[in-house]
Structures are given as C-alpha cells and as structure tokens.
Amino acid sequence: DAGVIQSPRHEVTEMGQEVTLRCKPISGHNSLFWYRQTMMRGLELLIYFNNNVPIDDSGMPEDRFSAKMPNASFSTLKIQPSEPRDSAVYFCASSGRAPYNEQFFGPGTRLTVL
Amino acid sequence: AQSVTQLGSHVSVSEGALVLLRCNYSSSVPPYLFWYVQYPNQGLQLLLKYTTGATLVKGINGFEAEFKKSETSFHLTKPSAHMSDAAEYFCAVEGAGTALIFGKGTTLSVSS
Predict the structure, then answer these.
(1) Can you tell me the mean pLDDT for B37-47?
(2) Closest partner residue to B98 among A4, A31, A108, by Cβ?
C-alpha cells in the first residue's frame, strides 16, 4: 500500500499567487482530512470529507481557502490569493470506516509564501 | 463535546530513563483514544490506540498507554528512553463523525 500521497512536497510562492495542494487517500478509505501545522498554532483541522462530501469546514480560516473532493481518490486544497501567514505544513490524512477512525497521514506539503 | 489536554508541551529525559507523557480527555461517551508520533519533517504516525477491552495498550517501539476511566487519563509510557524517541507526540480522542480531536502535542527530548 502506497499510503497517503501528497503533492507537491514543497511549494514556494509569492504573495497573491494561487496555490493548489493535492492529496490521494489510501484506497478504500472513505474519510479525508486536511490539517495545517504551524509552530504558533500547532495542528489544526481545516476540513474533512466523508464519502467525498464536506462534513465540517469550520476550521477553514477564511474564504481564501477552499477544498474539493471530486472523487474517492483525489482531493485538493486551494489558497487564492495566498498570504505570508499561510506558510505552514499542510497534512492530508485518510481513514476507513468507523468506529475506530485511525487516521493515516501523508508526508505533508511545506508551503512558503514570500 | 470531546477534548484532549496534554500536560507539558516539552518533556526532557535522559537516555535509559522512564518516559511519561500525560494526556487527559473529556468525552460524553466511551472514548476511543490514540497516540501519534511525529518525527522531524514527517507526518504523524500511529503509536497505539485504545478502543475497547484491555485497558493497557501496547504500541510500537516499546510504548504503552493505560486507559484509566476514573482519572479520564491515557498517559503514554516507555520504560527506557532511546535517542531515537525524540519527537513530538500527540494524544487524540475520537470526536463527532469520523474526526479526531488532537491535543497540542508534547515534544520529547532525549539526552545522552
């Protein structure tokens, strides 16, 4: 099993540019999660999907952030326009069916906005 | 609502010493509890989990945790620390739906 795959692993962009982060969950998993990790705020849940449907997006910081899951094997997190304070490591995780909900994390995308 | 509190953002031990990382939870239903480890520049990796049954749970790399309902705790221990255990550790409880609620993490430093 390849695990959760994220791309790119590193992204450096300039303020105002659009950034798209990609995630491929583990095959057969029906839940997908996007997290952001910074030194200041720790690990924050941004949004999660069940069966490709967004369930809770209350962690999305503002309208500049959007996430989609067009099918069971792909999700994107988009930031438009990006700002320096968006610099962080973004993790994608997936999990199978309840009740145990063990989440498997991808390696993360390190985003730097200049 | 479920929540997790990790006591101590940073714990330092000597190699060979006991490791104790503290986690207390709040849950209105019987909880499912997890410990994850994050090594530098990597994603989170599951160490162990408690679902039902035996309250002493053994995980990878010699770690174990004991679920104590009366104390609402799920502390992580390892009898003898190794340099390779230096990492950040996260306690989590199952939240609403399929989401996990993570604590703020504890950084473990191991000195020789």
Answers:
(1) 92
(2) A31
